[in-house]
Each structure stands twice: as C-alpha cells, then as structure tokens.
TrEMBL record:
Coiled coil: none annotated. Keywords: Cell membrane, Membrane, Transmembrane, Transmembrane helix. Its main location: membrane. It is found in: Cell membrane; Membrane. This is Probable membrane transporter protein. Signal peptide: none annotated. The chain crosses the membrane at residues 6-35, 42-62, 68-90, 97-114, 163-186, 198-218, 224-242, 254-271. Belongs to the 4-toluene sulfonate uptake permease (TSUP) (TC 2.A.102) family. It is a multi-pass membrane protein. PANTHER family: MEMBRANE TRANSPORTER PROTEIN MJ0441-RELATED (PTHR43701), MEMBRANE TRANSPORTER PROTEIN YJNA-RELATED (PTHR43701:SF2).
Length: 276
C-alpha cells in the first residue's frame, strides 16, 4: 500500500502545486475509494498532503514573485478561523454526507473553470486602479510573466468579498480536508481580480497554514493513519517542488483546463460514493 500511496502523492503534489488546490483533491478520493479509508481518515491524510504541497511550492513561488505574501497573510485570518470551525463540524457529519458535499462542490466549480478557461492576463495599457483599502493595506504588486515576457501589474479588488469567501474556504478545509484551494483560487482570481498565476501561488502559500490549524482536531480524534500520512507527506513534497518549478512556463488557459478536468472526474467519483 505504501508504494502506491507514495506514487499517487507525487502526482497529487505536482498537480496541486500547479493549480493551487492542494494534494488533498487527489489523495482523499484515492485513499477513500481504493484503500477503503473512512472519510475522516482520508480527510486527515488530505490535510497532510495540503501542508506538504504548500511547503514544497512556497519557496519557488516566492522567489518568482508570484506569491503575494501580504495578501496571503491578510486573508489567512479568515481561513484559519474557518478551518477550526470546519474541523469541529466534521465530527458531527457522517462520511457519506461529507462525500456528497465534496462532490457537489467540486462539480459546480468545474463548470466555472470550463466557462473561464480562455481567460488570460491581457496586456495593460496603464497601471491597474488601486482602491483606497488596497493602497492602505498594500494589496497590490507585479510579477514578470515568463510566457508573455513582460511585467504584469495588479491590485486586489473587492477586498471585503474576498475576505468573506476565504472564511467559507477555511470552513470547507476543516470540514472536508481539501485545503479548499479551489475556492481560494476562485476568490483571488474572480472576486479579487488577481492574475491566475498569482492566485494559485498565493493559494498554495495560504492553504498550508489553514490545514495546519485544522489537522490538530483530527489528531485529537485519532483519525491519523501514520504510515499512509508519512508516504503522502514525502510524495507530495517531491511532486510539489517539481510542479512549482514548471508552473511559470505554462500558459494560464492550460492550467484552467487541467483544473476543470480533474474536478469533473473527482466530483463524479465522490458523488457516487456519497449516494451508494
């Protein structure tokens, strides 16, 4: 079992770091469906994979100036509070309900990503408008896009809406053990209007802290399967380090398409498991 979990975890870390969604999106269904872990044990391993993904990708994204540390730290307060609440709530919900909720949420988000798959960062003729709060909190910045060979400037928009969405993302992280990277990326990309690569990199940075706040609840309840979680941690760390080095050279539209395909498959499997 350990070898299979390790191999799948490498893939999970690679994909998770590219898309900012955490390895739990792949690890949880794999452990639940193939090795028949109960949903709480799989969710705990998913949180381990999220922490490892964040650790493996963070340094590379910070070096490439893709991660906006100030935006990440500002929004982390909401996700940590939500993460603890979600982990507590998970103890009162049966495994089939968790699987069904997980699947439905993923399916909905896959349709959103397909709809927006052609969205790319377009050249700006002028610097982006910086709102009063974005300026006060310094929630703006720039990075050099290696595909477009130019500097891209950006500024966070709708800060209040993004903060609320991050609270919801934190609750889902603790409830489902997924790191809620999909919702964080959507909040950063569609609500706060950040470039897609900045959204995924900042999501990677944030979700490790959120998962760390949640996993203590699972540890106290005895949901940690230590040998499986060890294989997950090492495999995801290797995969995420590789993915982080490749992501700056991949076009955003390809990342969106890959994201949507993974979500569709995973959501169908988890809905099936929750219904039958």
């Amino acid at each position: 079992m350990i070898a299979e979990v390790f191999f799948v975890s490498i893939i999970a870390g690679f994909v998770g770091s590219l898309l900012g969604i955490g390895g739990g999106l792949i690890v949880i269904p794999f452990l639940s469906i193939v090795f028949k872990f109960n949903m709480h044990q799989a969710a705990a391993a998913g949180l381990v994979s999220v922490i490892a993904t964040s650790s493996g990708a963070a340094s590379a994204y910070v070096k490439d100036r893709l991660t906006h540390l100030r935006i990440g730290m500002f929004l982390q307060l909401a996700t940590v509070i939500g993460g603890v609440l979600g982990a507590i709530l998970s103890g009162f919900l049966p495994a089939k309900v968790l699987s069904l909720i997980f699947g439905i949420l993923l399916l909905y988000n896959s349709f959103l990503m397909i709809k927006n798959r052609k969205s790319v960062e377009k050249p700006q003729l002028a610097s982006p408008k910086i709102s009063k709060w974005a300026k006060r909190l310094k929630l703006y910045g720039s990075y050099f896009d290696k595909i477009q060979n130019r500097e891209i400037e950006y500024s966070a928009q709708n800060i209040a809406g993004g903060f609320l969405m991050m609270t919801f993302a934190g609750i889902l992280s603790g409830l489902l053990g997924i790191g809620s990277g999909i919702f964080k990326v959507l909040a950063l990309d569609t609500i706060m209007k950040l470039p897609f690569k900045v959204s995924t990199a900042t999501s990677n940075f944030m979700m490790g802290v959120t998962a760390l706040a949640s996993i203590s609840i699972y540890l106290a309840r005895g949901d940690i399967v230590y040998d499986a979680c060890g294989a997950v941690a090492v495999g995801v760390l290797v995969g995420s380090a590789i993915g982080a080095r490749l992501m700056p050279y991949i076009k955003s539209k390809y990342l969106r398409t890959a994201f949507a395909l993974i979500l569709i498959y995973t959501s169908i499997e988890m809905i099936r498991k929750g219904l039958f």
